Every structure is written in C-alpha cells, then in structure tokens.
C-alpha cells in the first residue's frame, strides 16, 4: 500500500509544473515571431523524452533513435499527400506504424551488450535512411518529399504563416503524451523498468519478465518518437532524409546529457537549452557554433551539471577535499 501511495504521489502535479506548462502555451500568443522556434522546441523535447524512456528508465542505449522519428515523419507526410490531409488522422497512423516498427526492432536489442545495442540501433537507422534514399519515387529521395499540404487541426484551426497554430498543436500533443509517459514510468511497470536498468540479472531472479518489459517500453518509445517526427512533417509540410540522419540521433542524446536522464523533464530542459544555444550561437558565429556547444558539453561532463550552475562551489569542494 505504501508503495502504491508513493507512486501516486509522484504523479501529482506541483505548482511550478502548472506555471511552466501554462507559460509554454501562452508564449506563441505573446511572441508570435518566435512561434516556429517554440514549435521546434516542443517537437525535439518530445523526441528527447521518448529516448529517455529507454535510456533513462530501462538503461537501453541507442544511437539510432532517429529511425522512428524519421519513419513517423515520412508516414505522416505520405498520409497527407496520398490519403487525406487531416493532421490528427495522420498523427494516429504514424504513431501506430512506428509502434509496429518498434516492436519488430525490439527483437534486435533484447540480447547483447551496450556496444551491441549501439551498433544495432545505428544500423537500423542507416537501413531506413538508405531505403528512403533509394525509394525516391515515393519519398522524393535526396530532394525530400515536397508538396505536403495539411488541413486544419480538428477541422477548425488552420496552420498560419507565423506558426502559432503549429506551436499550440505540437505543445498539445506533447502534453498529452507527457501525461501518458509520466503515468507509465510512475507505475509498477515503471518500477520494474528501473529494476532492470539497475541490475538485469537480479530483476530476472526475482521474477520480472525482462524480455517482455524491454520490448514493451521500446515499442512505446518508438511510438512517441514517431509522433514527434509526424509533428515535424505536419507543421513544416516537408520531410527529407535529414529526419533519419545520424545527426538527429546524436543531437537528442546530447539533449539528455544536458537535461539529465531518468526524469522526463530532463528531455524538455535539454531541448530548450540545446535549441536556444543553437539558435543564438548560429546567429553569432555561423561557422563555429558547434564548437561552442561542444565546449559547453565538455564542461558539463567535467564539472558536473549541478556544479556548473553553481560556479562558487567549484573551488570550495576542492579545498574541502584537500583538507
């Protein structure tokens, strides 16, 4: 009973969460010139949270998570172009197909070491990238899938040039999926995932079905990543090979390094910091912005996230250690 109460307590919203989400939804109205940036942050934050499900909670490393992001983007774009332009229907189809792809791909990560999973997940993304490149009659190949026209959201809200509708649409989907993921990780199922992450052999010894748990969370993470990819294609009206590239997987991993793993808000915080830094540094130093982001990441790893935010503790901790 105490364990169930503890899980329920973790799902309760705190005052700062209401304020943060409320601020996120009013920003597109007060800053319409930055609505497209807010939309992009919401999409990559959702993508980062999907990776946190398998990395932070299940301990599954991946360098090819862009496979599901890109598959969702192409699915939503093709659905709008070939079937119907309704964004909600396209989003549902993309999520379902990415879940199927995740379930099939989960077979490849059930066994082996972390290095094996890195190579297998990377290989999956590269296979889909090459497939999208070769099927240029369907995907547009290197030129990308163009001419994607989206209808109004729920038949009521047209996508505007400023990107405010796109931002609210992405934020709404992000919030809905965040609530589902939060409920999942703070459930008995989520507790078994943490046990598998901490010690897989011990989890098996106490009767946790490790294989099925990993397959389920990998499928859910693939579906959420597919939703993020679908949002990108729907709000931009375009899908290209970039959505399947290795850079996409590397960037989302860096976001989790910045924000922290094992709590869903880490993906949100990492996405905000990464995209704002990228936007600002690329404007200040267009040729060297990656250098400065790399330098910040090196400092983050060497100094530590908490101490980097409190520079006055750097030398105090060292003095205490030497005394």
Give a verbal description of the structure.
The chain is mainly alpha-helical and 323 residues long. The protein folds into 2 domains: 20-284, ABC transporter involved in vitamin B12 uptake, BtuC (Orthogonal Bundle), CATH 1.10.3470; 288-323, no CATH class. It contains 16 helices and no strands. The longest helix has 27 residues, at 210-236. The protein is globular, with a radius of gyration of 20 Å.
What is the number of E strands? 0
Number of helices: 16
CATH topology of the largest domain: ABC transporter involved in vitamin B12 uptake, BtuC
Work out the oligomeric state of the chains in this entry: single chain
**CA distance, first residue to last residue:** 46 Å
CATH level-1 class of the largest domain: Mainly Alpha
Low-confidence stretches: 317-323
Main sheet: strands, sense, barrel? none
Q: Which helices and strands occur, and which strands form pairs?
A:
Blueprint: H1 2-11, H2 15-30, H3 35-55, H4 66-82, H5 87-105, H6 114-134, H7 136-139, H8 164-185, H9 188-198, H10 200-205, H11 210-236, H12 246-259, H13 264-284, H14 289-303, H15 305-309, H16 314-322
Helix pairs in contact: 2-8, 3-8, 3-11, 3-12, 3-13, 4-5, 4-6, 4-11, 5-11, 8-11, 9-11, 12-13, 13-14
Short structural description:
The protein is mainly α and 323 residues long. It has helices at 2-11, 15-30, 35-55, 66-82, 87-105, 114-134, 136-139, 164-185, 188-198, 200-205, 210-236, 246-259, 264-284, 289-303, 305-309, 314-322. It starts with a helix and ends with a helix.
